[in-house]
Predict the 3D structure of the following.
Amino acid sequence: MLYSAFPSGRGVRVKIDISSLEQEPLLFDERFTVEPERLDNEVVATPVKVRLEGEVRADGEAVTVFGRFRTEGTVACSRCLDDVQWMADEPFTVEYRWPEKTPGDDEIGLEEEDLDVSFLEGNEIDLLELAAEQILLTLPMRILCDENCAGLCPTCGANRNRTAACECPPEVDPRWLALADLKSPRSES
Ligand SMILES: [Zn+2]
Ligand SMILES: [Zn+2]
């Protein structure tokens, strides 16, 4: 885990101490930057700005964090790897449990689709880690700079969206040619 991403002394609360959490929910509204190294995802190559806003509630068994996750950053186009602006604004709910109070996996009985369950380590909730998880959850599987992005030349790697990207002959895999025919009339022959 990388924690160096966050320079200290900037006055942002990255970790929430839940040991003193009582009946009242604890509110937070923090902005920080998540470094790409933290994300372990080749699509994100530059720091991602995040705002996490919400509240933390605890009962005897679990700590629930819910709120709103907003982000903007730059990710790589799935075809040509060019920078694409990416923004998200999503609600989130994460439940934290203490490992020792949690029954075996198959007894948890949660609707896994609805709820993201993590385990607490100590008495802190790491908002930066939560933000990194939300980025990975929200990031689309496939992002394109343009619907008609021509991608990279499979032969030389040139970006075919740029004029005169390269002079390689067209690739020969007939499956791809057939697909190209379906999508748009071929402009060259
Ligand atoms: Zn592209
Ligand atoms: Zn080429």
